Amino acid sequence: MNRPYSKKRETTESHDAEDAALFERRGTGRADIPVRGGRVDMADVDAAVAVLRRGGVILYPTDTVWGIGCDATNDEAVRRIYAIKQRDDSKAMLTLVSDLAMLERTVDGIPDVAYDLIEFSDRPTTIVYDKGIGVSPLLLGPDGTLGVRVAGESFCNALVRRLGRPLVSTSANISGKPAARSFDEIAPEVAVAADYICTSRRDDPCLTPPSCVIRLTASGQFTILRK
Fold it and tell me: What is this structure's pTM?
């Protein structure tokens, strides 16, 4: 059930993925990665973004599993997610960005190899960088590190792009329980705590496994933390 922040949607408003997630350079000097997926229900995107901008928490399909998310710059919203997941706040959560320009506003000092890892990876890849900036400090590791992934699926990319800020992305489950690979696997106690549940991709039988996680230092050295 959707919670109070939802609003009536215009069901006729739907755009192709290429309209929802244009590939831009925005001063990066590099082309953004292609975004996979089909048509995007922009009414669903707009309803979710309205909730996010009010400090709400949403459930949404990511480029891996179903996630619980909020505006990554909002401390109170981030605290809510920790509480909903019953997660130790010493365990940092990752964020999604829509493109390389947003990545460069979220990470201070991106090694050149990061762009190659993003471009040539054949699966969703989260990179843990040395220094996150412009997001809630609650999302940073004790050493200031931040995990970031460029959203490579059409719906979640459109969601982050329309929000215009990084989006928290963590599996829609209670901490320590299996990740929600499909809408039906979302923990009921997580679902009732959300302010809005996206309607898109609910019928997908199973999304992809959680992302590969790579720790990348400013010097360009990297370690695979999760395959």
Answer: 0.83
